[in-house]
C-alpha cells in the first residue's frame, strides 16, 4: 500500500532543519571558506534571501495541488509522457543524492572514526538502517527526526562553550576587503548544496496536515538552519584560521579536536561525529524514502516498499562510483553540481508553475 501517514507542520520544520544541516555542515565549510575566505559567514547569511524565494516557489506550486506530489502533478500539467519524463528525472535525482550522502558518511567514518574498516562495509551497515526506516514509513521517520533534533542542539552548544577559549575573532578580519563580489560568489555552491536539494520535500508536502502553515514552518526552520550554519563557519574560521579551515576536508571535526578541558577531558570530536551522523541519517532517509515513494506514484505501484531492496542495493553500489576522492567531489560541488541540482530544485518547478498558471490547471 501507499503511505497514509500524516505529519504536522512542526515535524516538517524539524525535518527541514536536520536535512539542511545534514552533510552540508560537515563538508561545506571548507568549500565556502576556500571561496569567500574570512567573509564566508556573509555568504551563508546572503543565502537566507535565496531560501525564501525558493520556498515561495515551492509553496505556490504545492498549494495549487495540495494532495499531490511533484511527480503526480507534473503529469497533470505537462501531459502523460512529458510528465513521466519529469518523474523519472526526480527519481534519478533522489537516488543519486542518496548515493552522494551515503558516500559522505563512508568517507567521514573511514577517515576519522574507523580507519581500518572498508568503506563498503560502512555503506552496507548504514544503508540497512535507512532501508528499515523507509520501510516503517513517513511518520516513523519524522518522529526519529524529532527525537534526534534536541540532541543536535545540546551537543552543538556544549562543544561551542568548550571552544570559547580557542576562539580568536581577529581571524575574521578584515571584513569585506574586496567588496561584496567575493561573498556573493560564495553563494553559488549553496544553490545546489543544500538549497535546491530541499525539493525532496515536494514529495512530502501532501502528507502535511494544515498545509497553509507549510510556508511558515519551512521558511522558519530553513532560516534557523542557515543561522546555525553561519555560527559553524564563524567558529571554524575563528578557531582554525582561514588557511587551515579552507584546506581541511571535514572542518567541523578538526575544530572539535581543539577542545581540551584541563588534562583529562579530550577527544570531544566524537560528540561532533555523533551530531553529524544524526543529521546525515535524517537527510539520507528522506532522500531514499522520496525516491521509493516517487517511483510508486510514477509507475502506479500499489506499495512503495516494493522498490526498497533493489533501490537500496543500487544506492550502495552507486555510492562507490559517484566520485573517486575528496578532491574530485570538491571540484564537482563548486562546478557542475549546483547547475544539476538547480535544474530539479528551481528550473523544473518554475516551469511547472508557469505552465500551470497559463493553462489554469488546478
TrEMBL record:
Transmembrane segments: 12-35, 41-61, 81-101, 121-141, 148-167, 187-209, 221-250, 270-291, 303-323, 335-355
Chief site of localization: membrane
InterPro entries: Spore_GerAB
Keywords: Germination, Membrane, Transmembrane, Transmembrane helix, Transport
GO biological process, one term: spore germination
A cellular component term, taken from the record's GO annotations: membrane
Entry membrane topology: Multi-pass membrane protein
Subcellular location: Membrane
Family: Belongs to the amino acid-polyamine-organocation (APC) superfamily. Spore germination protein (SGP) (TC 2.A.3.9) family.
NCBIfam families: 2A0309
PANTHER family: SPORE GERMINATION PROTEIN A2 (PTHR34975:SF2)
Name of the protein in question: GerAB/ArcD/ProY family transporter
Species the sequence originates in: Paenibacillus validus
